[in-house]
C-alpha cells in the first residue's frame, strides 16, 4: 500500500459531505436501468431469510444462547478466503448516527486520497447503496456486484447447504462486501454494524484487523432483540470493542450507559476517545445553500488529553446534513479520523496500516 496519510486533515473546500453514497444512490436510480444488469442476484438474495423484513427475534443481538450464531458467518468467510482479514477496518455501531458518521469518515478518508470501502445498511432504493468503494463514494455498480456474486456463488451455495439453509440475507451480503473490499485492495474499510454489536454479522472483525471501534449513540431501537433495556443495548453495542484497539464514543450518553462502554474498554485495555469531551467545542455559525443544496457552516475545535491526545481546529466546515445531531456525528467522525492519524504516526496500526507510516 502507498503511504498517503498526511499529518494534517483537510476537507474538500471546507465541505464535509455525508450524503454521497445514499443520495447518489437515489440519483442513480432516478437515472434507472442498472438493476437490470444484476441478473439473478436479487432473486437469489430474496430466497434467503431476511430479518429486516420479518423482524429480529427476541435476544438475537445479545451475546447469549439466544444470540445469532457468528460461527456460520466465520465459516462462510473462510470459504471465501477470509477477505475481511486483508485490510484494516473501522467498525461503527450505534442506535442512531452510525450511517452519517460512516459517510462523514469515508469522505474524509477519500479526500486524503485513500481507496475506501464503506458498508452500510439499510438502503433506500437499491441494495447497491449499501456498498461503496474507491474515490467516487457512490453505490457499487451493478456489473461489479453481479461479477462478484458469480465469483462467490459456488462457495455461498456450499455454505448454505452445510448450514442447513440458515444463512441470512444480511450475512451473505456482508460477506460479499468484505470480498469486494479485498478484491479492490482498499486501504481501509468503514463498516457499519446492522442490528447491534456483539452478535451482528459484521462483528467477525478481530483486533488484528480493527483500526478503531466507534459507538455513536445508545437508544431503544431493537429493544427486545438486544436484551430489553438500555443497559443491555449498551452491552451489546460495546461488543465491537476489541483488545487494545481504540474506541471513539459519540453520545451524549447518560452516565450509566457511558460507564458500561468504558468498563468494556477498561477490560479490553482499549483507549477511549469521547466526542463529548469538554475539550471539544463545536458550533453552527449559519445555515446556507451551495448550488441549491442546504448546509450548516460549523466550527469544530478540539484539544483532547487523556488516553490519546488529539488536537485540531476546523473553521467554516460545511455539513450537507443539518441539525445539532449531525454536527455531533461530524465531531465523532473527526475524532475517529484524528485517532487513525495518531495511530499511523505512532506506528501502532495492525497489519497493513503499519505500512502507511
TrEMBL record:
Highest taxon of the lineage: Eukaryota
GO cellular component annotations of the record: cytoplasm
PROSITE patterns: FOLYLPOLYGLU_SYNT_1 (PS01011), FOLYLPOLYGLU_SYNT_2 (PS01012)
Gene3D superfamilies tied to this protein: Mur-like, catalytic domain
Keywords: ATP-binding, Ligase, Nucleotide-binding
One term of GO molecular function: tetrahydrofolylpolyglutamate synthase activity
Stretch forming the signal peptide: none
Mur ligase central domain boundaries: 92-336
InterPro entries: Folylpolyglutamate_synth, Folylpolyglutamate_synth_CS, Mur-like_cat_sf, Mur_ligase_cen
Family in the record: Belongs to the folylpolyglutamate synthase family.
Record's protein name: Mur ligase central domain-containing protein
Organism of this sequence: Aegilops tauschii subsp. strangulata (Goatgrass)
Organism placement in taxonomy: Eukaryota, Viridiplantae, Streptophyta, Embryophyta, Tracheophyta
Amino acid at each position: 500500500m502507498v503511504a498517503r496519510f498526511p499529518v494534517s486533515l483537510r476537507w474538500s473546500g471546507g465541505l464535509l459531505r455525508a450524503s454521497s453514497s445514499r443520495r447518489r444512490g437515489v440519483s442513480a436510480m432516478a437515472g434507472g436501468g442498472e438493476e437490470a444488469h444484476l441478473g439473478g442476484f436479487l432473486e437469489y438474495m430474496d430466497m434467503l431469510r431476511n430479518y429486516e423484513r420479518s423482524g429480529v427475534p427476541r435476544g438475537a443481538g445479545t451475546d447469549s444462547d439466544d444470540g445469532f450464531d457468528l460461527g456460520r458467518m466465520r465459516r462462510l468467510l473462510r470459504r471465501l478466503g477470509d477477505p475481511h482479514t486483508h485490510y484494516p477496518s473501522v467498525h461503527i455501531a450505534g442506535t442512531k448516527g452510525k450511517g452519517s458518521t460512516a459517510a462523514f469518515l469515508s469522505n474524509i478518508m477519500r479526500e486524503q486520497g485513500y481507496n475506501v470501502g464503506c458498508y452500510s445498511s439499510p438502503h433506500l432504493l437499491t441494495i447497491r447503496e449499501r456498498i461503496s468503494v474507491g474515490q467516487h463514494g457512490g453505490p457499487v455498480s451493478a456489473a461489479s456486484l453481479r461479477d462478484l456474486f458469480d465469483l462467490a456463488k459456488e462457495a455461498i451455495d456450499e455454505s448454505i447447504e452445510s448450514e442447513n439453509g440458515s444463512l441470512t440475507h444480511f450475512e451473505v451480503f456482508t460477506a460479499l462486501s468484505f470480498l469486494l473490499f479485498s478484491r479492490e485492495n482498499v486501504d481501509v474499510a468503514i463498516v457499519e454494524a446492522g442490528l447491534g454489536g456483539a452478535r451482528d454479522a459484521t462483528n467477525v472483525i478481530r483486533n488484528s484487523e480493527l483500526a478503531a471501534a466507534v459507538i455513536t449513540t445508545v437508544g431503544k431501537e431493537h429493544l427486545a432483540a438486544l436484551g430489553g433495556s438500555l443497559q443491555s443495548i449498551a452491552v451489546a453495542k460495546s461488543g465491537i470493542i476489541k483488545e487494545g484497539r481504540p474506541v471513539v464514543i459519540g453520545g451524549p450518553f447518560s452516565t450509566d450507559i457511558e460507564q458500561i462502554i468504558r468498563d468494556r474498554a477498561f477490560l479490553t485495555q482499549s483507549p477511549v476517545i469521547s466526542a463529548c469531551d469538554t475539550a471539544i467545542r463545536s458550533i453552527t455559525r449559519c445555515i446556507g445553500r451551495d448550488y441549491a443544496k442546504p448546509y450548516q457552516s460549523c466550527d469544530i475545535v478540539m484539544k483532547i488529553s487523556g488516553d490519546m491526545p488529539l488536537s485540531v481546529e476546523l473553521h467554516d466546515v460545511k455539513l450537507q446534513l443539518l441539525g445539532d445531531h449531525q454536527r455531533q456525528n461530524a465531531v465523532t467522525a473527526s475524532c475517529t479520523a484524528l485517532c487513525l492519524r495518531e495511530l499511523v504516526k505512532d506506528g501502532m496500526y495492525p497489519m497493513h496500516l503499519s505500512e502507511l507510516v
